[in-house]
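Need a sequence for this fold. Nothing fancy.
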């Protein structure tokens, strides 16, 4: 399809860009790949949906009684606590455990991904009601909830390594390999996550992508549409957003 876009190879092959401004290569490739799957509706990137049936961590300290637990004292417990709060939608509770400079950008990205996931559910329901569940699957981008590293939906903490006032926590997102590392720093009396999920303009583009899904879902409910027509409608609305996201994720050449 001539109007479809593809993530640049430079994302995966160039030197790691500054964490302050760019996603890491692993997050950039994954996010761009997930967006590409939905935009052109073919399996260019194989999605792992096995995580959907995996139980979340069962540690009751980080379950429903979040408000009653003490602040986490170790790096691994910090990641678990942040994950539990994020799952419960209590983003204010995780703010003290985020780097102060990165904090507003990380929160904005989480909120944008949550809106995109909700819009995906709306579109899935609309297409399933109109054409059946099988026809809705090619438009599914539910895996987007697992592109946020330590802020992903399906996460297991596997271990930690301390080095004075810094630490590395090993996590697995869903059943995906390779494993990922979360970097933390000691600040006063607690640990703070420093991650590379900061691209200031990316949340705005993800909100636009979510709005496109919501608009198409409304069109599907309003007018009789075939799967091909839905695909064309999505492509027409998303291609410009996809190109801008690709540009945002392309590392800046060194001076």
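Here you go.
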């Amino acid at each position: 399809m001539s109007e479809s876009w593809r993530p640049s190879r430079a994302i995966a092959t160039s030197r790691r860009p500054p964490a302050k401004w760019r996603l890491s290569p692993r997050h950039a490739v994954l996010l761009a790949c997930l967006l590409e799957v939905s935009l052109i509706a073919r399996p260019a990137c194989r999605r792992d949906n096995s995580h959907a049936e995996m139980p979340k961590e069962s540690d009751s300290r980080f379950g429903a009684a979040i408000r009653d637990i003490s602040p986490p004292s170790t790096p691994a417990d910090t990641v678990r606590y942040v994950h539990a709060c994020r799952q419960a939608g209590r983003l204010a509770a995780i703010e003290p455990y985020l780097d102060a400079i990165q904090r507003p950008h990380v929160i904005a990205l989480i909120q944008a991904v949550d809106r995109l996931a909700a819009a995906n559910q709306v579109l899935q329901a609309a297409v399933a009601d109109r054409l059946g569940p099988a026809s809705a699957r090619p438009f599914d981008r539910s895996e987007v909830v697992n592109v946020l590293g330590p802020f992903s939906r399906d996460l297991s903490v596997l271990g930690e390594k301390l080095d004075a006032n810094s630490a590395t926590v090993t996590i697995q997102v869903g059943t995906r390999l390779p494993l990922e590392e979360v970097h933390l720093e000691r600040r006063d009396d607690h640990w703070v996550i420093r991650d590379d999920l900061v691209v200031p303009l990316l949340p705005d583009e993800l909100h636009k992508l979510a709005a496109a899904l919501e608009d198409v879902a409304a069109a599907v409910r309003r007018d009789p549409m075939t799967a091909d027509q839905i695909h064309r409608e999505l492509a027409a609305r998303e291609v410009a957003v996809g190109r801008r996201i690709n540009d945002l994720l392309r590392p800046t050449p060194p001076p």
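For context: The chain has one domain: 10-249.
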